[in-house]
Specification:
- The structure is a single chain.
- By secondary structure, this protein is α/β, with parallel strands linked by helices.
- It is built from nine helices and twelve strands.
- A seven-stranded mixed beta sheet has the order 8-7-6-9-10-12-11, with helices on both faces. A five-stranded antiparallel beta sheet has the order 1-2-3-4-5, covered by helices on one side.
- The N and C termini lie far apart (44 Å).
């Protein structure tokens, strides 16, 4: 295999995922970051921001179904949702499966990401940005949320579909002051869902963000899912200001049926509840 045929994707400080490429990289213009579209044997088409893998055709459903449906089905009747980041449209795509959601705001920094997926990865948004219920707000997500909060908007769901918590483009969106603004922007029984990261490859980052979230939100529950592109185990954090009992499996199944949601490839009610069970090394990390 030629050296140039290998795509190197960082998993952590000392680990790299090597993928065989089927064709050369394609670059997309952006004044904010480097956007690249890759075509690989194992994952099909995928895109990277500043060299970090964001989503791939082969396994993106694992992260986006989990990121959206765990909080959306934990809530009895979500009507308004905000996606922080989410310029590939995949989170909006999953939110649109909930007919009770009347308004979905996607707060994406970079119009280049939106243009790129429309051209090269249309399977991710599947037309989500053309839906009447979806509103795309371009610019810093912090400025977007400040403006929406000042206008009196409150959200039942706030989804963090962002790059890593210490990435310069979104590090400020994981700091205590912004997390406080998110908490203040929740409606009663509102839920925030955050990507914590890889407990194996990024333990210090995961533990630090978990502590920050715990200092702001009285309710913080962790889900363990599996995303091959991200190196395997991946943690999500569900946050709320108010008491939020975990629905039973029958309740989750009933909500899926009532909302007419079917054909999911990763999420199911049993997995929703099972994802709360953590191995001891992750319990110790978060202790």
């Amino acid at each position: 295999m030629k050296h140039a045929d290998l795509l190197r994707l960082p998993l952590g400080a000392d680990a790299t995922l090597l993928l065989r490429q089927r064709c050369p990289s394609r670059r997309a213009p952006s004044r904010f970051q480097s956007i690249a579209v890759e075509d690989t044997q194992a994952f099909g088409a995928l895109y990277c921001l500043d060299g970090d893998a964001m989503a791939a055709e082969a396994d993106e459903f694992m992260i986006h179904e989990s990121l959206v449906h765990i909080p959306a089905l934990a809530h009895p009747a979500p009507r308004r949702a905000l996606v922080l980041g989410g310029g590939d449209g995949a989170s909006a795509r999953e939110l649109l499966k909930h007919p009770g959601l009347e308004r979905i705001v996607v707060a994406e920094l970079d119009p280049g990401v939106v243009a790129m997926v429309r051209s090269h990865l249309p399977a991710l948004p599947q037309g989500a940005f053309d839906a009447d219920r979806v509103s795309l707000s371009l610019g810093d997500a912090a400025h977007t949320l400040v403006s929406l909060h000042q206008q009196g908007e409150r959200f039942d769901l706030i989804i963090f579909d962002l790059t890593e918590a210490d990435d310069p483009a979104c590090a400020h969106l994981h700091q205590p002051d912004f997390l406080q603004l998110c908490a203040a922007s929740l409606s009663p029984r509102g839920i925030i869902h955050v990507q914590l990261g890889s407990p194996f490859y990024q333990p210090e980052k995961v533990a630090s963000l978990y502590r920050r979230l715990g200092a702001v939100f009285p309710v913080l529950r962790v889900s363990l899912i599996h995303v091959p592109l991200y190196g395997g185990p991946w943690l999500l954090g569900l946050c709320a200001r108010d008491d939020l009992p975990d629905p039973e499996e029958a309740t989750l199944a009933g909500r899926l049926a009532a909302r007419g949601i079917s054909g999911l490839r990763y999420y199911n009610p049993a997995l929703h509840l099972a994802s709360r069970a953590l191995p001891n090394y992750i319990r110790d990390l978060l202790a």
